[in-house]
Amino acid sequence: MMFFHEAIARALRSEDITTIFGVMGDANLYMMDSFASLDDAHFISTSNEAGAITAANGYARVTGGLGVACVTHGPALTNTVTGLVESVKDRTPVLLIAGDTAVVDRDNFQNISQRDVVMPTGAGFEQVRSVETAAEDVAVAVRRALSERRPVVLNVPIEFQWEKVEYEPVASRWVPDQAVRPAVDAIEQAVAVIAAARRPLVLSGQGVMSESARAAVARLAHRIGAPLGTTLRGRDSYRGDPHNIGIVGTISHEIALDVIGDADTVIAFGAGLNKWTTMEGSVLDGRRVVQIDVDRDALQRNQAVDAVVLGDAAVVADELVEMLDAIDCPATAFASADLAARLADHSDGGFVDRSGDGTVDLRAAMIAIEKAFPRDRALVYDGGRFIFNAFGLFHVERPRDYVHTVNFGSIGLGMGNAIGAAVGTRRPTLLVTGDGGFMLGGLAEFNTAVRHGLDLVVAVFNDGAYGAEHIQFRRKDMDPARSMFDWPDFAPVAEALGGRGYTVRSMAELDAALAELPRRDRPVLIDIKLDPDQVDSAGH
């Protein structure tokens, strides 16, 4: 026999959960204390529940597994709502364990209908039904989060904590991903479209994360003479390939736009073909389209296509190559030597450095940081006006190392995700954020990174304003003062929170700060001062 809080901790650990992010309160502290006492189990205490849920999201994104957070009842749960919606829109498997007020404690001032809080977010909800069913309820919640690819809240009544139970482990309900073979007629339809193409473009999305899948898709592109492009979420999948045109969509560079405009066929692997990737549909208009995805719900979700293949990206790509070989289909010349030469000559440096009196040019600063920071890293963006430039100027070694945090259009979610990414990768992590996002969601959690000894560098692009609002005022010839803030210098704040801080008002000061990075022994914050009237929100 053991106490319930010990039993549920063991049930969580039996699901191979080793890391939980959270904030303790009376409805979850005994569970988390028991969990942290188990072998190879770690409770990462955050400063705020919003940081806990976003850290779980970042952890799941970089590991490809399940992210787990734990909070107490009432306001602790409501603090996670924005993060829950972000994870729902991100389609990230997250388990949120929420303590709940005792049923008999009707007048508890933290009492709330927790299911009614969760359901509008789009997250799933599972109730721990009794002390005897706890292990099974955990297994079901884990299976749902992984298979449904969304957060699931496991609701745990506080009155169970000190009840005695005979703990018996249950088998995991999760079925690991398996390669799904496509239907023969679907492959034949796809081959018919591809064989007729003269200028094919292969597009790879976040459904092509594994190294084997990326390699198989690249083999197909080489076989048919097609350039390779990616969605934003699949970014940097084919760095080093001479015919990689980079991100396809609203932030494509000029050579990529030329290739997209000339293409007559698009072959999309693991890409939802949303309005940003397709530039409101223009990428697909007048072109034949083949869409391949292991997720049935993704197929034709946003637009009807010419051929649909339900199957694993690697399996489908290899079968397409095999069938194209069998019919002796010639390669096209679309991925030409001339295109490779143009791409090799393409540079991010073609811009005017507008660094001025006490401020730094945004693009110049980003290029300097990109060159100075280790390539083998996790990369996290917060939301903000700076992001359009950041999308094209920062890179990762593997697409899974990039954590996207603007699925809900919120700022302030970057720091939590960066903490999760740093824990999940155990590698240097770069957070690119604005001053508004840092103040909204990053300030308190910077100390979380300090307390847990994370290798995190925070680049704050500080224009002293809410940039999206500032530019609206400017465009209408209105006074932008209401969108501006007289923030304190963030470097001394970072030092007070236990990190290292640098204030940057010139490129020389930025170079000096970056030169110190190899010697860092704690989280670092670089406060980069910008002129709000010199921040281009269009990405060029």
Automatic annotation (TrEMBL):
Provide the Thiamine pyrophosphate enzyme TPP-binding domain boundaries: 388-528
Can you name the source organism? Rhodococcus rhodochrous
The molecular function terms of the Gene Ontology recorded here are: acetolactate synthase activity; flavin adenine dinucleotide binding; magnesium ion binding; thiamine pyrophosphate binding
Q: State which residue ranges cross the membrane.
A: none
Q: What is its EC number?
A: 2.2.1.6
Catalyzed reactions per annotation: 2 pyruvate + H(+) = (2S)-2-acetolactate + CO2
Which InterPro entries does the protein's record reference? DHS-like_NAD/FAD-binding_dom, THDP-binding, Thiamin_PyroP_enz_cen_dom, Thiamin_PyroP_enz_TPP-bd_dom, TPP_enz, TPP_enzyme_TPP-bd
Which intervals hold domain Thiamine pyrophosphate enzyme central? 187-320
Q: Which SUPFAM superfamilies does the record match to this protein?
A: DHS-like NAD/FAD-binding domain (SSF52467), Thiamin diphosphate-binding fold (THDP-binding) (SSF52518)
Q: Where is the Thiamine pyrophosphate enzyme N-terminal TPP-binding domain?
A: 5-111
Give the pathway annotation.
Amino-acid biosynthesis; L-valine biosynthesis; L-valine from pyruvate: step 1/4; Amino-acid biosynthesis; L-isoleucine biosynthesis; L-isoleucine from 2-oxobutanoate: step 1/4
Q: Which UniProt keywords apply?
A: Amino-acid biosynthesis, Branched-chain amino acid biosynthesis, FAD, Flavoprotein, Thiamine pyrophosphate
Output this protein's name: acetolactate synthase
This protein's record includes keyword Flavoprotein = yes
Single GO BP term: isoleucine biosynthetic process
A single Gene Ontology CC annotation of this entry is: acetolactate synthase complex
Keyword Isomerase applies: no
The residues the entry assigns to the signal sequence are none
Family of the protein in this entry: Belongs to the TPP enzyme family.
